Structure formats: structure tokens, C-alpha cells
């Protein structure tokens, strides 16, 4: 592979105070050959070496309380079967968090890998703290956690909440030492989990394996963009070959995604793992998160978070990069696709181009009204900032692949392009299958059980908000259908 994708150490990355807009203006957008994106030619969006496993001694207190949560096997506070001992253990642990000193973060910013670890540790503590609380108690996050988490998040330009990066990208190590630096797909383990179950670990590792397999897709993108600058018949033939190969890579990603069923049980995931992920905007978590200490701090850079979603595969830069590269982003990321009721829905699959609203080329800001912002656009704010820059860099390519296909008259190129888009659509079909198995069906079962209990007690039965994952199903189908809508009619490349 080309050395332009070689990994550069964290010291060569832009520091936290670098403005995204400045980077977008300075980089050469003619190719993917830029070093400021933290994208490696061997591991893609994952780091080429196992992430830092522990913070330096100055911040060891955070590591200790996280260890205590994991080793104590703290339970969800909303469970009905908690024993008095389990409740007391969680209460004692939260008291430990509340008694932590407010540690300074000045020296954390000197190392990208260290401050990433700080975000991971603090956000895991946050979710342990919130989700061990009984449902009857208000959610008040102690200042000992609020202030360092918000400060670290501000430096990293990330939300103060658990992200895909904290559960997948920077949450792995080797099972066994290996001679070659590139992680083998079967030699990975997750460092941090909530439950200590194989199910939870397999959920994270499925995404990690997909990230590693997707490295070839990134290389094919780079090669395609290089050939696009040549633009002759030989270049067109090479692009056609690259797209056919990309379709095979996407098929492999689909296989890896469906393989999650081999190690992660749907009932365990839904009932024991998924509740830990919930953020402020989860439909069934109506209690407000109060970040203690914001009102009496002199730090004007800290703001109360308005929207915090938990970790999601929608935060994977790889999938967004594929959308952008293939030119389907304006279809799959449309502002009309939110998964919320009252918004437009692409209800049927079509093989003709559509007229959905494209997303802006700049970094998408967080919205205080999720229903008014496309979900996938919002998820980009949860990505590492260098990866967001990579997507903007890719988006600003002056010779978009879709334009090349549309403006040409090469039947083989069109067929290869449609094959790649079809493979991406099939990957999204697989995602719908997994979400149906792991969320929608268990949610319906849970709803039926609640309704049965209420009927037995003579209580009024009301439909639960977001029951059965209906909004989620709608959203995923809309994204899938939007992707399919980017297909060109066979034998025609008229317009976009």
C-alpha cells in the first residue's frame, strides 16, 4: 500500500485547539494522502498499536474507581431482582466517585493517546454511575466527575458521554502477543466491559473486526481517487476493477456483521448490555442528567450538554466514508431520515435517483432538537475529530466518483458502481436483521410482559414510547432505501 497512509505518532496530529475549518482549508483535498487524519494504512480508523491501557499516576484515582466498578460487577439500578447487598455495593461505589478530588487535566493534553484514555475512563465511570442509580433517584453527576469529563471532552471536541471510540476503537488489546503489528481478527479482546460477559465483548469485537477488514476499502478509495485524476481509458478500467473489489470487501463486512450471532445472545445483549449505553436522549430514560458544578465554575469554556446519545455503530467513520466515497451520502444521510415520527420517510426501495436534501460539507453541529437533524449527521459529532476531518476531506474531493460514473458512458464502470452500491445496501440489510434480532424482537417481548403484568394487576395499559424499536426500524429501513435510491438505472447515467 502507498506510504501516504502510514501512521504518524500522536505528536504529529493536530492538537486539540486546532480548528476544524482551518484544517479543511489547509489540506490538499485532491487525494487521501494526508497525515493529519489519524488513519493508518494497516488498521484504518483503529490505532496501529493497542491503545494505552492505563493513565499515568497523576490520574490513577480515576482508574481505581473504574476497576472497582468492573471487579465489583455492579448491576443496573433499574433491575427488579437486585439484592440489598448489590444495592449497597453500588451505593458505596458511587460515594467513592463523589469523594474523588477534582483532578487537573492540564498535562493530559500533551499526549493524544493519554487524553483519549482519559475520555474513555471518565465516560465509562459516568455510565456506571448513572445506570447503577435506582430509577426513583434523580441523576446528579458529581462535580468530581463533571468537571474533568467536560474539560477532557472539550479538548477532544467530543461529547461527554460514552462513544463508539470508547467501546471499540480505543478499547482493545491482543489476546496473545503477536510478531506482526497488524492485529489479527481472531487475536483481539476488549479491555473494558460493563458485564464481563462474552456477549458484550463479542458485540464490541464485531465492530473492531469490521474496522480492520475495512482497511482495504480505504485503500481502494485512495487508488480510485488517484486514477480519477488521470482520467483516461486505462484509469477508467482500473477504477472499474477497484469498485468490483470494493463490492467483495463490503460482502465480507456483511459476513462479519452477521457473525455476531455466534457469540452474542440477543436476550443478554438487550437486557444486560444495552441499557448501560443509554444517553440523555434515550426514549425510555426521561430523567434529566444534571451536571453538578457547572454553575459555580469560572471556566467559561464548559457548557451544559444538550444532547448525549450513547455509543452506536452509526458513529463508525468507516461506514460514513463509504457513503461519501460512493456518493450516496445525500441519499442515506438525508435530513429527512431521522427515525422520528412526523418526518418524511422513504418507504419503498427505488433504483432511480432521488431528490433528498444533501448534508452540508462542514462539520455537522450538535442539534438540540434531534428530530430536526438527520441521525447519521449527528453521529459524526461523536467521532474522533481527526476522523471527522478525514470525512470532510473525502467529501471535498473535486472529482467525485459518482460524477465520473454519471458523466461518462462506460457501461462496465456503471455496472461496477451499481454493484458496489448494491453491496452497501446488502450490508445495511444485514444491519436490519441484527437490529431486529437484538433490539426490536426483545423490545416487543418486554412490552408484552409489562402489559401482561399490568392486566393481571388491573392497571391501565398504555403503549410505551418507542415500543418495539419502531423508530429504529423505520430509520434503518429509510437509510437502506436511501442507499438503494442512489443506484443508476441500468444503461443510463442521465444526471444526478
Automatic annotation (TrEMBL):
A GO molecular-function descriptor: indoleamine 2,3-dioxygenase activity
Protein name listed in UniProt: Indoleamine 2,3-dioxygenase
Low complexity bias locations: 343-368
Segments of this protein annotated with the region Disordered: 336-369, 449-469
InterPro entries per the UniProt record, alphabetical: Indolamine_dOase (IPR000898), Trp/Indoleamine_2_3_dOase-like (IPR037217)
Sorted UniProt keywords: Dioxygenase, Heme, Iron, Metal-binding, Oxidoreductase
Gene Ontology process terms (BP): 'de novo' NAD+ biosynthetic process from L-tryptophan; L-tryptophan catabolic process to kynurenine
Taxonomic source organism: Dendrothele bispora (strain CBS 962.96)
